UniProtKB/TrEMBL annotation:
It comes from Artemia franciscana (Brine shrimp). Belongs to the glycosyl hydrolase 18 family. Chitinase class II subfamily. One of its GO terms (molecular function) is endochitinase activity. It catalyses: Random endo-hydrolysis of N-acetyl-beta-D-glucosaminide (1->4)-beta-linkages in chitin and chitodextrins. Its EC number is 3.2.1.14. This is chitinase. Residues 1-23 form the signal peptide.
Length: 472
């Protein structure tokens, strides 16, 4: 068993004093695709749109590898840095920790679009690796990041060579040696595909060297195929064969574990997007229906074959004629209308995957990615409905968010606040009184996680049996 809760649930006061945050039982790793800042209209998502109170780890995607020097560089210096009148997204991202000091901010390098070849070249020679590794620590420290996420997709693949497997291990070993003396985390996003895994990763060593493995359990099917299939099916479909046998979340997770990855290091990836097709014949609309074209681009992400959850839910909520099908193999919905067909994840399919995380006692969940959640709550009653759901299923309690915890001011001399500090309302609900600049009392409401109660003596949420009158 992992050591859970207990002293990890200290009530933590931010320097501003207004946010209380409780440490989470499981990770909720939130990837942010920073290019979403360029999306039009309600799809535009800037750093300040992130709600850091429902993430344990915030990962900025992506930095790049310079193909001349083999050092880490900003991918989009104007957006990422303050240099030359830039927007400073790195530092603004790290500053989100002011709203949740328990969260860690990491920088990811690579991703799909960076390809594999540059990384293969960099890792192939000890001097190049050294130059790269030596560039990473000062780069992270300059902007205040707490760790590094190595997203080489993938060693040995996409133009890589067989030696990448060994070189990747050397690279991780050297990165760990450089990062850990500074208390910086090292994580990787890894492939879910059996064939890639066998070629790319020496799993026991990779797992040993990493703090966490972010398992990208999605992109199993998409418009690169000529037939419909789900982006992230939980279980196999009876028609799966040939190259797509074992293309499902359950298989990938079990494969990583049975080949030596400890569950306590795995964050299971959950997609906040779908992959879609244009059906060749609208009357053939099940799995494995002929579909030779990608679904047309959505209005925000503007990418063929891909719709964010925000684009899917808006289209279904405000459009007509969609049929949503939930299939026992996918355990996740697909929806079709005329020739459109899209397989995606929603509240209920995430529930099934989150059950798996709890059942296998994994480190937690990873989500790709927060900027395609319904963050403007166009289709749901609250912002980030999917991310809130992930947090609640894993950690049982909504950490008070900045918006839902707006402190209230009371006049001086009121009986609610005899002095500064915490006051219990009942076993699990309590409030904080702080003196405001004009003698008014600033009052913030909080609640303790399930199984715990507020202990006024220690000013912490503690096991409920430790707090007199609250336990069984
Ligand atoms: C390096 O990247 C630049 C910009 O993408 C490209 O024009 C150039 O060909 C690349 N050089 C090598 C050696 O790959
Ligand atoms: C299946 O995989 C093999 C080996 O990787 C490849 O040569 C073949 O083109 C793939 N077939 C399809 C239909 O993708
Ligand atoms: C999930 O994977 C495990 C391990 O491979 C397997 O035993 C189990 O049958 C799978 N579940 C389903 C429903 O396929
Ligand atoms: C649904 O998506 C299609 C394709 O992007 C678009 O043409 C249509 O306007 C959308 N409908 C709604 C109601 O958003
Ligand atoms: C609460 O209970 C735990 C476990 O029973 C114990 O170790 C701890 O000291 C207690 N804390 C307080 C403040 O009494």
């Amino acid at each position: 068993m992992r050591s859970i809760l207990v002293l990890g649930i200290l009530v933590f006061l931010a320097s501003t004093g207004f946010e209380a945050v409780t440490a989470a039982k499981r990770n909720v790793v939130c990837y942010y695709g920073s290019w979403a800042v360029y999306r039009p209209g309600d799809g535009k998502f800037d750093v300040e749109d992130i709600d850091p109170t429902i993430c344990t780890h915030l990962i900025f995607g992506f930095a790049a590898l310079d193909n001349q020097t083999y050092k880490i560089v900003a991918f989009d210096p104007w957006n990422d840095l303050y240099d030359d009148g830039g927007r400073g997204a790195y530092e603004r991202f790290v500053a989100l920790k002011n709203k949740n000091p328990e969260a860690k901010a990491l920088l990811a390098i690579g991703g799909w679009n960076e390809g594999s070849v540059k990384y293969s070249y960099m890792a192939s020679q000890p001097e190049r690796r050294r130059g790269f590794v030596d560039s990473v620590v000062p780069f992270l420290q300059k902007y205040g990041f707490d760790g590094f996420d190595m997203d080489w997709e993938y060693p040995t693949q996409r133009g890589g060579v067989a030696e990448d497997r060994e070189n990747f291990i050397e690279l991780l070993r050297e990165l760990k040696a450089a990062l850990s003396p500074h208390g910086l985390l090292l994580t990787c996003a890894v492939s879910p595909g059996e064939q890639v895994i066998d070629e790319a990763y020496d799993i026991p060593i990779v797992a040993e060297l990493l703090d966490y493995i972010n398992l990208m359990a999605y992109d199993y099917h998409g418009a690169w195929e000529q037939f419909t299939g789900h982006n992230a099916p939980l279980y196999p479909h009876p028609l799966d064969d040939g190259n797509v046998t074992n293309f499902n979340v359950n298989y990938s997770l079990n494969y990583w574990i049975s080949n030596g990855a400890p569950p306590s290091k795995i964050n299971l990836g959950l997609p906040f997007y779908g992959r879609g097709f244009m059906l060749d014949d609208p009357l053939e609309n099940g799995p494995y229906a002929p579909a030779s074209k990608p679904i047309v681009p959505g209005p925000y992400s503007r990418t063929e074959g891909f719709w964010g959850y925000n684009e899917i839910c808006i289209n279904q909520t405000f459009g007509t004629g969609w049929t949503v099908v939930r299939n026992e193999y996918y355990q996740a919905p697909y929806a079709f209308k005329d020739e459109y067909w899209i397989g995606y994840d929603d509240y209920d399919s995430l529930t099934e995957k989150l059950k798996l995380i709890n059942m296998y006692d994994l480190a937690g969940a990873m989500v790709w990615s927060i900027e395609t959640d319904d963050f403007r709550h166009k289709c749901h009653s609250r912002p980030f409905p999917l991310l809130h759901h992930v947090w609640e299923e894993l950690n049982g309690e909504v950490v008070p968010c900045v918006d839902c915890n707006t402190p209230t001011a009371y006049p001086p001399g009121n009986e609610k606040c005899p002095h500064e500090g915490y006051f219990a309302i009942d076993c699990t609900h309590y409030y904080l009184c702080q003196l405001g600049p004009d003698g008014e009392w600033i009052v913030s409401d909080f609640s303790c996680p399930p199984g715990t109660a507020i202990n006024i003596d220690t000013q912490q949420c503690d096991h409920d049996y430790n707090v007199s009158g609250c336990g069984a």
